[in-house]
Backbone:
């Protein structure tokens, strides 16, 4: 049995912009295509309200509660500086493309059996 250490990259994309205008499904398909081309695969949910997760956060300065219906994307990739740099840049691209002030994105090491 082969055991490998990889990084699991995880981020969430909103179903609609801050004015409530839904993003077309093509936007989500484009993200999946870009990640599939670079990493060979990914796991994601379909962009529908029936399966979307509810993201909530409280802005501390104004005590304003924000909510977004989001879908997760997961990518298993080698733990390299090059992949880390890719996701830093990709996050910036996604913030612009999805008209967001912030996109929650994390990575952590995982063991693959």
Residues:
């Amino acid at each position: 049995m082969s055991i490998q250490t990889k990084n699991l990259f995880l981020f969430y994309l909103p179903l609609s912009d801050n004015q409530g205008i839904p993003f077309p499904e093509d936007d989500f398909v484009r993200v999946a295509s870009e990640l599939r081309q670079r990493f060979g695969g990914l796991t994601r949910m379909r962009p529908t309200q029936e399966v979307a997760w509810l993201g909530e956060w409280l802005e501390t300065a104004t005590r304003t509660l924000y909510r977004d219906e989001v879908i997760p994307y997961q990518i298993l990739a080698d733990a390299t500086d090059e992949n880390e740099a890719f996701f830093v840049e990709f996050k910036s691209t996604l913030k612009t493309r999805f008209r967001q002030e912030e996109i929650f994105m994390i990575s952590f090491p995982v063991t693959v059996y």
